[in-house]
Structure prediction request, 76 residues.
Amino acid sequence: MALHMLGKDPDSPDGDSPTVYYDDVTGNYILQGWKVLDPAKLAEMSIPEHETVIEFPTRMMHFFPEVNGGGGPELH
Prediction:
């Protein structure tokens, strides 16, 4: 598996998160974000045991090539 970092949150106070990655084997995006721990939010979702939920800022949507009219990620 080869992960490619597409972008980090420019507003992150410590520069570590959130982050968008692209998996060039599966063609899927992998998102690193803040854990959702709010019981009220979690109660509104049906989360299977093998999944997790993160919160991801809309200001980072531009890292997804499809949002900007591209057909796939630009890998560097």
Notes: Residues 16 and 61 are 17 Å apart (CA to CA). The beta strands are 3-8, 19-23, 29-32, 34-35, 54-55. The longest helix spans residues 39-43.
